[in-house]
From TrEMBL:
NCBIfam families: esterase_phb. Gene3D superfamilies: 2.60.40.290, alpha/beta hydrolase. Coiled coil: none annotated. GO terms for cellular component: extracellular region. Keywords: Hydrolase, Signal. GO terms for molecular function: hydrolase activity, hydrolyzing O-glycosyl compounds; polysaccharide binding. SUPFAM superfamilies: alpha/beta-Hydrolases, Carbohydrate-binding domain. One of its GO terms (biological process) is carbohydrate metabolic process. Residues 250-276 are annotated as: Disordered. This is PHB depolymerase family esterase. It comes from Nonomuraea mesophila. The lineage of its organism: Bacteria, Bacillati, Actinomycetota, Actinomycetes, Streptosporangiales. Residues 1-31 form the signal peptide.
Length: 427
């Protein structure tokens, strides 16, 4: 089954919500979005639109902004804040357009997942090289961001072309290689449903295999996901964290955890400033409709293209210390099934306003029902989200939920837990 049949309907419905929450007016300048043809090797016939603000410097930064399925580069230009931010901070924006049915990008073929392998990534890299040659774009300040299909493409470009991009920001994406197929299809149901769980090293090895022999610096990565995403499900958030922390040789324990907004939980890995090697932002209660207002500015900060992106600056919010949660997990087993009671204790100094607990069930275990929480998917890496009545956990207080499951003989307990993206201790 192709990507369009599965994702286009959900993304089209979400698109109206995305655009409604963003700045949609044309930037207040004389600069215009312009289509460019003949920009170089373009195996799949992508279209290229370019936005060059008034007054850019001789060596401007370059941002590639990649749209979601059913849309186009011009639609992503008018429906997101990146152009207005380019006017403010004087960088150039490239807007690629997919041309296949459904307007989704190829993030699954062997060609797309290999450095200089061809397909859509090769065309996008040609666009970058065109801007570097014709507009003096700075190779040391070249970045990529995207949503849904574009978020998946961001992971692909960062993984396969670490020599081209310095950082990426993926909205509602999946790890590099997660969508891989070899049968000519472009849809991977297991990945989309959050059922593909690998070790950090396995994910990291997939990236390293895309460009054998590359020993240069790896691009920094920012990851965004809503906990209620029903199209590319929330477990993909943690899998991306696993992948990019491993690529950078980092622990999955955050260096900093903070809450810039009430429903945002931000974790930073390998640094506490605004430009760490890896940053992840979990958005509680939000589905497949990112980015929303203000998120593009946070991307520009992470890239270091604004004053807020000064790597020497101190965080503007008070961080929670690592390990502000403790989880107790109690099982009651029988021949082919078990029940589990899970208790989350807030060991931090601030209330938790809502929660999503992520953990991985051993092979063969599958959830059949749950109480006091919603647990999804049924197997593999699952996420339990609070019920309407138990979302708030005061400092020192606890919330409990339970579920019933089947097993195939393995009655081991999950090895680790993460609350809103931050690792918990276990009781």
């Amino acid at each position: 089954m192709n990507l369009t049949a599965r994702i286009a309907g959900a993304v089209t419905a979400a698109a109206a919500l995305v655009i409604a929450g963003l700045i949609t007016a044309s930037p207040a300048s004389s600069a215009q979005l312009t289509e460019v043809t003949g920009f170089g090797a373009n195996p799949t016939g992508l279209r290229m639109h370019l936005y060059v603000p008034d007054g850019v410097p001789a060596r401007p930064a370059v941002l590639v902004a990649v749209h979601y399925c059913t849309r186009s580069g011009p639609a992503f230009h008018s429906g997101t804040e990146f152009a207005s931010l380019a006017d403010r901070h004087k960088f150039v924006v490239i807007y690629p357009s997919a041309t296949r049915s459904g307007s989704c990008f190829d993030v699954s073929s062997p060609q797309a997942l290999r450095h200089d392998g061809g397909s859509d990534p090769a065309g996008i890299v040609s666009m970058v090289r065109y801007v570097q040659q014709r507009h003096g774009g700075d190779p040391d300040r070249t970045y990529v961001t995207g949503a849904s299909s574009g978020g998946m493409m961001t992971n692909v470009l960062i993984g396969a072309y670490p020599d081209v991009f310095r950082a990426g920001a993926s909205f509602m994406g999946v790890p590099f290689g997660c969508f891989a197929t070899t049968d000519g299809s472009s849809w991977n149901s297991a990945c989309a449903n959050g059922q593909v769980s690998r070790t950090p090293q396995q994910w990291g090895d997939a990236v390293r295999a895309a460009y054998p022999g590359y020993n240069g610096p790896r691009p920094r990565m920012q990851i965004w996901h809503g906990t209620e995403d029903g199209t590319l499900r929330y477990p993909n958030f943690q899998e991306q964290i696993k992948q990019w922390t491993d690529v950078h040789g980092l622990s999955q324990t955050p260096s900093l955890t903070d809450r810039p907004r009430a429903n945002w939980t931000r974790t930073r890995y390998g640094g506490t400033g605004t430009t760490p090697p890896v940053e992840a932002v979990s958005i509680q209660g939000v589905g497949h409709n990112l980015p929303q207002s203000g998120m593009a500015a946070a991307v520009i900060d992470f890239f270091g293209l604004s004053d807020g992106g000064d790597p020497t600056a101190s965080p503007t919010v008070t961080p929670d210390p690592p390990g502000t949660c403790r989880v107790a997990y109690t099982m009651n087993n029988w021949n082919a099934g078990f029940t589990a009671v899970v208790t989350i204790t807030n060991t931090g100094a601030s209330p938790i306003g809502s929660w999503a607990l992520t953990f991985t069930l051993p092979p063969g275990q599958s959830v059949t029902s749950a109480w006091n929480a919603t647990v999804s998917p049924a197997a593999g890496q699952v996420t339990a989200t609070n019920a309407p009545y138990n979302g708030t956990i005061a400092p020192g207080a606890s919330a409990s939920f339970g579920f019933q499951a089947t097993h195939g003989g393995d009655t081991a307990e999950p090895g680790s837990f993460a609350l809103n993206g931050a690792a918990c201790t276990t009781a």
